[in-house]
Amino acid sequence: MPKITNERYKTFFDSTKEFIEYSMEEFETNLKQIKYTNPYKQEQARCLAIALYYTGFRPIEVIGLMPHHINKSLQDITITMKGAKHGIEGTIVLPSDKYTKELYDYAKKQIPEYYIFNEFYSKYINKPKYKRFNKFTQTIDEVKGSYNAPAHNVYYFIKKWFNVNPYYFRHSRFTQMIKAGASIEEVRLAKLGRTEFSTRAYVKYDIHDAKKRKKYYPKF
Fold this sequence. Notes:
This protein is α+β, with helices and mostly antiparallel strands. The protein has helices spanning 7-15, 24-31, 39-55, 59-63, 98-108, 149-162, 166-179, 184-190, 196-200, 207-213, and strands at 70-73, 76-82, 89-94, 125-134, 139-147.
């Protein structure tokens, strides 16, 4: 396991249970609770949650999805795109069920070359100056920042309806893959990561133990 230097993330990681999982039963229950008066936003919100849960993508990656990214190959639903934070470009295959079909059908109804989750997409927003410790210079600097409004919108949405940070879906997805017998290399490709080092921090599970448990979990 690589050393985690981000203290906020380390606290979250250390405080979780042995396996970071959000069950399908829990997901389905909360998905039914999503209610918006606008039918279009209702449909879009459901598909946004489905995309986050099934892909394990970061909020900013899901927000950037366009119709041409989501396709069907025989019976499989696939998503082809480039990962954020210097990630690689690749294609992931989603489990085939009613929810991924709902996501595919929704995406293909949208305008080509437009973001399919445009109700949640907005520009970066400036925020006041704040102080931040610079670990390289060992000084406290005053900086003017901005926050990623699209990702912020997704954080708020997932927290409201599912009561978790959207990154919990990310950890859950890749932990489930490991439990199903996937290798770290397969998980790296699924998360569109450039290195194995960046992948291991997302998986709180012993790979050798996974091999012993493989028969108890369905293959993704």
